[in-house]
Amino acid sequence: MIRSLFQIQTFILILCGSYVFAQKVTHVLEKDIPYYDLETRASDAYIKERCKLDVYFPKDTTNVSTVVWFHGGGLEFGEKHIPEGLLEKGVAVVTVNYRMHPKVKHPVYIEDTATAVAWTFKNIERYNGNPEKIFITGHSAGGYLASMVGLDKQYLEKHGVDANDIAGLIPFSGHTITHFTIRKEMGIDGTQPIIDTYAPLFHVRKDASPMLLITGNRKLELLGRYEENAYFYRMMKVVEHPDIELMELDGYGHNMVYPAIPLLLNFVNEKSKSIDTD
User: What are the BD-FAE-like domain coordinates in residue numbering (predicted)?
Assistant: First the structure.
């Protein structure tokens, strides 16, 4: 379903108000946890430096949902962080650093993403999380990476994880065509759109995890970013994916993280309730 702009604005106000009255829960932050094994870290100084994650989780609550957050920055810059709207919401948050261009090239970014997601599946119970309720998200390049690791199953299969076990994918303003930095690495001009194996659009499939696509307003966003997501939405409908939604945030451009967080949390809450009652 594509929601109208007025509906989304009203929805955000309601959600923001409801979370204000949420019960206070003590959270703990553990920083700079390596997600590659010791042997791999010892073999590559950049992996040892860069491939770390933070886990923020409710201290005395079990069976919690987990949001894995990948930062943006065009695959060339950025640092792991927890968006303010995800603090003290009763969910665990895993925020990830990954290697970046020009020190590495594709598909290393996606491989790091998959390794961090696999680490989460294998370890989140130690942080009071339920591995059946892991949601993958991120902004811009991070949204692209979330889509790639959730749709192209080969990356998680290498770690013994089925991408379909992801509870939901929520890319914020992510490329659905091949990312512009990857096109640059292949010597393809930025004006040439490509849909190849490094494009989420290449991997549309009916059995993928539930998806919530969120972008800024089409006139304020990066040129074409809403339209990419709208076409991705269309193709997922063509293959009869049963659970995908597209939201366009009125009044916001590419920097649309803050108003999108309540929509993310509502999605996580709804899907988690369904899992708990199955």
Answer: 53-216
- Residues 6 or more apart whose CB falls under 8 angstroms from that of 213 comprise 170, 171, 229, 232, 233, 244, 245, 246, 247
Q: Which residue is associated with the tokens 């870290």?
A: 41
Class of domain 5-277: alpha beta
The domain spans of the chain are 5-277
258 within 8 A of 85, measured Cβ to Cβ: yes
Write the burial class of residue 90 (CB in 10 Å: 0-12 exposed, 13-18 middle, 19+ buried): middle
Cα–Cα distance measured from residue 145 to residue 30, given in angstroms and rounded to the nearest whole number: 23
46-70 pLDDT, tens digit per residue, is: 999 999 999 999 999 999 999 999 9
Q: How far apart are CA 233 and CA 252, in angstroms?
A: 20
User: Global pTM?
Assistant: 0.91
Q: What does the pLDDT look like over 69-125, one tens digit per residue?
A: 999 999 999 999 999 999 999 999 999 999 999 999 999 999 999 999 999 999 999
